[in-house]
Amino acid sequence: MTLPLPLFHRIAGQPVIVLGTGEGAMAKRRLVERAGGLVVGDIAAGLAQGARLAFIAHESHVDAVSGADPDRSAADAAALRAAGLLVNVVDRPDLCDFTTPAIVDRAPVLLAIGTGGASAGLAKALRLRLETLLPAKLGALADALAAARQALRARYPDAGHRRRALDAALGEGGVLDPLGDDGSGASAGARVAAWLEKTDEADDLSGPDKSPNETPSEVIVIRLASADPEDLTLREARLLGGADQIAHEPGVSPEVLARARADAGRIAIGRDQPPPVVKGRLIVLRTLD
Question: Under 8 Å CB-to-CB from 284, ≥6 apart: which residues?
Answer without folding.
Answer: 219, 220, 221, 222, 247, 248, 269, 275
